[in-house]
Amino acid sequence: MKRDTNELYFQLVALLLSIIVVHSIFVTVVRPNADSTIRQHAEQVAAGGEYEVPRSFFIIIKDLEQESCFILLFWAAAIMAYKTRTALREQAMFDQPLISLEEGSRVLVEDAAQLARPLEALPEQQRGLLLPRALQAALTRFQVTTSIQSANDAVNTLCSNEAERLDSELSMIRYITWAIPSIGFIGTVRGIGAALGQAHEAMQGNIAGVTSSLGVAFNSTFVALLISMFVMFFMHQLQLIQERLVLDSQGYCENNLLRFLKI
Predict the structure, then answer these.
(1) Which residue of 139, 149, 197, 234 is surrounded by the most CB atoms within 10 Å?
(2) Which residue range forms the structural domain that includes residue 26?
(3) Model confidence pLDDT, tens digit, residues 160-207
């Protein structure tokens, strides 16, 4: 419960910081540079030069939809970094001497309490990690039921529940990967609607407004799809790390504890 509360606070703070940082960059850097580029091209047109649609990085990302996509990008990156850090802390437990049994050893029911002492001596934060909990569950079940199969079932059940929990905690990142292209499509609809509203100007020979509105439509979708692909790639990498963690924990329990149990 405490870990879930801390993660919730972290996500809220990360969202707030993403909004502040991204909006500050857009206000101070992106939009001033985009406006400057557009003015330069407008002056060239006014001077009788040939008009070219400005293709500038700042112009491509200057609109509100792109800003929203970048906010969601940094928010998702912060959440994934937090979960990756947690997974790496879990993996570090494999290097700890939690269970030290030599090949050929036998663990009887009366030995379970002694083997559990190093696990009980761990700091509270480490006791809540997956591997110590799985080992503790196996020893406790073996001590209570005197059944090797019951100890094995305890490990499998705990790892299965942990896998489901980790998968459910990715729901926010999945929502973000859905929301980013949706925001891009909103920009497309807005841009096309603005272009249709300026159709009468295009019929009179002034296509600057229509071109600018269509630029909003296509740029927002372009940026949103690129960011969505980026977030999706790293989300799948995080999911792979978490799945390997669960499988490795289950394998650790089988290889370092369960196969030594004897009745």
Answers:
(1) 139
(2) 2-89+169-218
(3) 999 999 999 899 999 999 999 999 888 888 877 766 666 555 555 555
